[in-house]
Amino acid sequence: MKYGARNQLEGEVVEIKKGQVMCQVKVKVPADSMMCSVMTLESLDELGIKAGSKVKVMAKAVNVLLASE
Length: 69
Prior knowledge:
Blueprint lengths: L6 E12 L3 E8 L3 E8 H7 L6 E6 L10
């Protein structure tokens, strides 16, 4: 499958927090970093993602913002 997103990292799902309709999926990626995705519970089920699943994280954003206190 081809994707337009050029920023792609492979990782492992370490935690899934489920709400009523949405869920937050935390993925450990190289350099002991974490990335997080929010999706519907329906999408989570369709993709078959569970804790321990190997996934590809793809990031495509118009803006990347940084803040310093």
